[in-house]
Amino acid sequence: MASRTKVYVKPSSRSNFLYGFSTSLDTGDQSVLGQIVVSTGTSGVVFGANSPKPARMRKTRDTGRSNSSYVDAGSRSTASTAGWRLVKRARARGAGGRLSKTVYVKMAIGGLNVQYAWNMPLELYNALASERAALGIKDVSSTEDRFDLVFGCNPKPPRAYKQSGDRIMSTFVDPDASLPAGWGIVGGEEE
User: Fold this and answer.
1) What pairing do the DSSP bridges indicate for beta strands 149-151 and 112-121?
2) What is residue 152's DSSP assignment?
3) Is there a contact between 188 and 182 (Cβ–Cβ < 8 Å)?
4) What is the number of other CB atoms lying within 10 angstroms of the CB of residue 85?
5) Mean pLDDT value of segment 155-180
6) pLDDT range class, residue 189, cuts 50, 70, 90
7) In angstroms, rounded to a whole number, what is the distance separating the alpha carbons of residues 70 and 17?
8) In what order do the strands lie in the sheet containing 112-121?
9) Measured between alpha carbons, how far is residue 54 from residues 5, 35, 73, 134 in Å?
10) For residue 157, how far is the Cα from the chain centroid?
11) How far apart are CA 175 and CA 108, in angstroms?
12) What is the spatial distance between Cα 191 and Cα 188, in angstroms, rounded to a whole number?
């Protein structure tokens, strides 16, 4: 099995973070696709994000085998010239559905403030109406750039919980939020 290297690309020219992943491509192909090796001190790299995803390109070799990998937003034309073909465009997740609301909290990853987003069930969203701001939870506006919202990356923001009658409410919160009375960090002590 080929060894894997941790690299990153910029998923979109509009993104404010770098999309990290592991690849087994050789250094020549990494260079053509604009993949940069993650080194100590590299900041703003997010691993494991479900969205946004960078574009993916594929190149078929003379042997008939093909390689496929993510391409940096600024390297697509260079890769096309080198024989790579676009197979998936960069994409970002849209807004929540009828039963959910897309929200986010800000958190620092590698020195960069990232907007960690998720689709909160509408019932919980409404139940937290008076406490969302104190928890650092912000609504995603229709003008928000979807390529700045990171869904499902690692690390994740802390989760907080609150007992409300016979129900326990739990949600992601801003790491710097001062929790309202009755809230505690999951796995931590009550505030």
Assistant:
1) parallel
2) S
3) no
4) 12
5) 92
6) very low
7) 15
8) 138-139, 100-109, 112-121, 149-151
9) 17, 11, 7, 33
10) 12
11) 9
12) 9
In the chain, pLDDT over 90 holds for what percent of residues?
68
CA distance 27 to 175: 38
**Could you give the 3-state DSSP secondary structure of residue 76?**
helix
The rounded distance, in Å, linking the Cα atoms of 164 and 95 is 28
- Give the separation between CA 55 and CA 9, rounded to whole angstroms: 10
| Separation between Cα atoms, residue 146 and residue 100, nearest integer Å | 17
Question: Which two tokens mark 161?
Answer: 């919980």
Split at pLDDT 50, 70, 90, the class of 190 is very low
Q: Which amino acid is at 129?
A: A
Joined together, the tokens standing for residue 41 give 């001190």
CA–CA gap between residue 179 and residue 191 (Å, rounded): 7
Quote the pLDDT of residue 112: 83
The pLDDT of residue 147 is: 82
Classify the phi-psi angles of 48: left when phi > 0, otherwise alpha if psi is within -120 to 50, otherwise beta: left
Kindly state the helix (H) or strand (E) to which residue 28 belongs, with its residue range: helix 27-32
pLDDT at site 95: 67
State how far the Cα of 92 lies from the Cα of 149, in Å rounded to an integer.
8
Q: Is-contact 138 117, C-beta < 8 A?
A: no
Res. 30: pLDDT tops 80: yes
Q: State the pTM of this model.
A: 0.81
Cα 164 from Cα 160, distance rounded (Å): 13
